[in-house]
Each structure stands twice: as structure tokens, then as C-alpha cells.
Design goal:
This protein has 416 residues and is mainly alpha-helical. It contains 13 helices and 13 strands. It starts with 7 loop residues before the first helix and ends in a 7-residue tail after the last helix.
Length: 416
């Protein structure tokens, strides 16, 4: 797959862009007075870029013996990191993206391999029962990936759906407690109750929405109603406890110190992304405008100030090293952000603004944030405006975020 990177110059010339390696989109004045519109020159180009990035993911990080992703890659062949549970979900999400985009069997074959490999890796590393893990949010990410695998696999293997539903019903939603913090899911199992986090409750709300949608479509109205009630309860807690309706900032959680509840003053991209994702899914399920209003307000805030945007580059800011949890955050934001941009029920001027922001991020990543050749070709770190150093190991997390953005460019729809 790595050879794909080296034919991009030909693709760009064929697209007629006029300047290789610098211009990957056209800036066209809007005739409607709503501002300029960035339009990708050629979807083929962005598909080739995604091929290069996702190819580097599979070639350099996939453990073909144990069927999960290595956490680090140090050229030419070293993998110094061990197994971690939750990043597996986001790496596999990129594979799902690539399968949806290309239809290639290589990607589809990874579905069943990953489904088994992650279970075994979790058991071996954490002593978990099947997919069970002490971190509730970690299980939520795995469930969301299983649901995407069920949706996108041509055979819709029921085991992906039933396993996802079992994890959610037995080990996620059961962690709701009324105290502390007036509700919400705990971050960890056992006796840990100090605080509640967006990173657990927001993806859980999305899971509940997805399950409600599945059962609504299949005609099981009782199950659909039960999951919708879960989603609404979770989102109500998120909005009432973590969302500041004045500033439009979604905060990361509430901690309890000496019996006093204190809301975090940090807003991270993946927290905002999953919160707006939950609101958007609830809008689709219910048609209630308030959910769409929330989603748009959160997206606008995230893309117009320094939290989580880096005002110096106009991109989502780096939120940690590429081999740490923060390396994944921006990619998670993009996964839900692009769905909002593509929703034609959103005001066109707003969609255009959000669209411009996403294209700017992708263009920055592919012009300034990647090496075009050598041992580090096609790989990314946590900064989308600068490439990773060409020494040491590349972290799975940072690379996956970049892959997610490039794959998302292939589903981004122009705002006409």
C-alpha cells in the first residue's frame, strides 16, 4: 500500500490544480453572499491520500499474528508498545472507513480478525471477561466500533450487534448512579465514584441512539423506546451538568474533592465531538430542534476559539503526544463533526463555515503535517500543522487521528 503515496503527484497534475504539494482545493467566491467556499479539487485525490495514510496504518501497526493493532511503530520493523484496549476501536474505525470507501476485501477481512483479537488481547492484558474492562468509556468505544462493523458488513453478522448490546446493557448503562453529581455514568467500575466524565457519558448516549435506531427500523418499538429513554437521560445529564449554555462550552467532567463537586475547566475535542454527536443523533431520532441547536452551538464554539482550536494555525490543537490518549482526541471529534456538516437540515451558512474549517485542517495535515517519503512516509503525529520528527517511534493514537481526518474528507459533501 505504501507505493500509493508516490503517485499523488500524478493525481494532482491530472486534477489540474496547477501547483503540486501546496494546493489541494479551490477557493471559489460564493455568489450567495454567504462567504467563500472551499471545494476539494478532486475526490480521487482525497481517496488517494486516505489510501496512503490507512495503508501506513495497516502496514506498520497491524499485528497479523494476534489480530490487533500495535501501539507504536519504530521504523523499520520495531513495535515497542504493548496492547491497549480503547485505541483498538478507533484504529478499527479507520479500517471500516476504508472498507466503506473502497469495498476492498482486505479491509473487510479485518472485521472478524479484530473482533476476536481484541477480545483475546483484553483478556490477556487486563484479565477481563470477554470484552469487559474496568474503564466504562473504553468499553463504549469498542461497542461503537462493533455497531459500525454490523452496519457496514454486507452480511450484517448478528454477533457484532448482540455482543455490542450485551456490553452496553450489562457493563455500561449499569454504571449509572444518582450520586455523586446528580446522575451520570461512572468512569470506572468497582468502588470508584469520584466524579463523572463526558468521555463516558457522551459515547454511551450515542450507543443508546444507535440501538434505538436499529430497533426502530426493525419494528421492535419496545426496545427502541427503552434505548431512546437511555439516550435522553444521558444527554440530559450531559447538558445540565457539563454544558455551559452561556459560553457554549462543553466541559470534560465533574470531580468530587472533599465532598465538593467541581466542574472541570478543560474542554477537549473528543468530549465536544461526542457531545455534539449525541445531540445530532437525538435530533435525527426525535426531530426536536433543541438537539440540533445544541450540536451546532458546540461545533461553532469548538471551531472558532482556542479550546479546542489552535488560533495560531486555525486547526484543532494538539492535545497530547501521538503515543498517548490525547493523540486520538481530534480524530474522534472529526468522526461526528463531518456528519453534522453533511446534514442539509443545518443552515447553509453554518455548514459552509464548518466545512471550511474541516478542509483547512485536512489541507494543513496533508501539506504540512506528513512526511512524503522515507521510513515515516504517510504517518502523522499530534500536530496537524507540522510533521513528526523522523526518529523514534510513531504512536498509533496520533496516526489514527490523521487517518480519520483523511478518510472523513471522502464522505464530506460540498455545501452548494
Amino acid at each position: 500500500m505504501k507505493n500509493i503515496l508516490f503517485i499523488l503527484t500524478a493525481v494532482l497534475l491530472a486534477a489540474g490544480c496547477g501547483q503540486v504539494d501546496d494546493i489541494y482545493y479551490e477557493r471559489t467566491p460564493s455568489s450567495s453572499g454567504e462567504g467563500d467556499s472551499y471545494t476539494p479539487i478532486n475526490k480521487t485525490y482525497w481517496s488517494q491520500a486516505a489510501d496512503s495514510a490507512t495503508g501506513a496504518l495497516v502496514d506498520n501497526f497491524w499485528n497479523g499474528t494476534r489480530n490487533y493493532f500495535y501501539m507504536d511503530f519504530a521504523p523499520p520493523t520495531s513495535h515497542p508498545g504493548g496492547f491497549q484496549y480503547w485505541p483498538q476501536a478507533h484504529a478499527m474505525d479507520v479500517v471500516v472507513d476504508a472498507y466503506v470507501r473502497t469495498g476492498e476485501a482486505e479491509y473487510l477481512n479485518k472485521y472478524e480478525e479484530w473482533f476476536t483479537g481484541v477480545q483475546q488481547g483484553n483478556q490477556a492484558t487486563y484479565g477481563g471477561a470477554n470484552y469487559r474492562n474496568q474503564y466504562i468509556d473504553d468499553m463504549a468505544w469498542i461497542v461503537l466500533t462493533m455497531l459500525r462493523m454490523y452496519e457496514t458488513h454486507p452480511g450484517h453478522p448478528v454477533t457484532y450487534l448482540t455482543t455490542a448490546e450485551q456490553i452496553y446493557s450489562d457493563w455500561i448503562i449499569t454504571e449509572w448512579t444518582e450520586s455523586p453529581c446528580g446522575g451520570g455514568l461512572r468512569w470506572r467500575t468497582s468502588s470508584y465514584t469520584e466524579g463523572k466524565n463526558a468521555c463516558t457519558n457522551c459515547p454511551a448516549a450515542i450507543i443508546a441512539c444507535r440501538l434505538a435506531g436499529f430497533y426502530k427500523t426493525s419494528g421492535d418499538n419496545d426496545k427502541a423506546a427503552r434505548y431512546l429513554a437511555d439516550a435522553q437521560r444521558l444527554y440530559h445529564w450531559i447538558r445540565s451538568v457539563l454544558y455551559d449554555s452561556q459560553t457554549k462550552i462543553l466541559y470534560g467532567g465533574v470531580d468530587v474533592e472533599n465532598g465538593v463537586e467541581k466542574r472541570s475547566n478543560i474542554s477537549l475535542s473528543y468530549e465536544v465531538g461526542t457531545a455534539l454527536g449525541a445531540a445530532h443523533e437525538l435530533y435525527t431520532l426525535t426531530g426536536e430542534q433543541r438537539f440540533l441547536t445544541d450540536a451546532v452551538e458546540m461545533a461553532n464554539k469548538a471551531t472558532t476559539d482556542g479550546m479546542p482550536m489552535d488560533v495560531s494555525t486555525g486547526c484543532l490543537r494538539s492535545e497530547g503526544p501521538g503515543n498517548g490518549d490525547g493523540g486520538l482526541f481530534k480524530g474522534i471529534f472529526i468522526r461526528y463533526f463531518v456528519k453534522l456538516i453533511n446534514d442539509t437540515r443545518v443552515d447553509k451558512a453554518v455548514r459552509r463555515q464548518l466545512y471550511n474549517f474541516m478542509v483547512h485542517n485536512a489541507t494543513s495535515l496533508w501539506t504540512a503535517g506528513v512526511h512524503k517519503d522515507g521510513s515515516y512516509a504517510g504517518m502523522f503525529g499530534p500536530d496537524w500543522a507540522a510533521p513528526i520528527p523522523q526518529s523514534g517511534a510513531v504512536g498509533l493514537q496520533g496516526h489514527v487521528s490523521g487517518c480519520t481526518l483523511l478518510e472523513a474528507m471522502n464522505v464530506l459533501q460540498p455545501v452548494e
